[in-house]
Write a structure and sequence with these properties.
It is a single chain. This protein starts with a helix and ends with a helix. The strands form two sheets. It has a six-stranded mixed sheet with strand order 8-1-2-11-10-9. It has a five-stranded mixed sheet with strand order 3-6-7-5-4. Helix content is 14%, strand content 44%. It is mainly beta. The chain has a single domain, classed as CheA-289, Domain 4 (OB fold (Dihydrolipoamide Acetyltransferase, E2P), Beta Barrel), CATH 2.40.50.180. The chain is built from four helices and eleven strands; from the N terminus they run αβββββαββββββαα. This is Chemotaxis protein CheW. Keywords: Cytoplasm. It is found in: Cytoplasm.
Amino acid sequence: MQAIASHTAQKREYLSFKLGPEEYGIDILKVQEIRSYEAPTRIANAPAFLKGVIDLRGVIVPIVDLRLKFGLAQAEYSALTVVVVLNIGQRVVGAVVDSVSDVLDLGGEAIRPPPQLSAGLVDTGFITGIGTVNERMLILLDIEALMGRADMGLFDELRQAA
């Protein structure tokens, strides 16, 4: 419980974004930039959530659709759809989200620990907590842990370090 108390007492900034009706938050320090969505170049035999790659100023960036990764309804891309470009470890990866909302300062009583769910039923290993601001509830993600998962196939060096 001490680890949770010290973690939540420290204020952090989170970029909030939507996937369907749900709102999520990621550590703003992992965000490099936010870009409008453009169709990436597909990669043969890639899983559906890996939309492809884009060339970002000479860097080839894999693009992951978080809606598809989380098993939500098929993504519909609109003018609000964006790619959040992330710096994770020594790599750059893009995450497609339905829209970004704002940057929020959260800490102390605003962050609760993630729910304890049956290990085999729901994988919550990349959820760091639940943030609340007024009437809004955000699912706070450890984006590095999510993108570094073996089933993502993006970062061999992150999986080896874990």
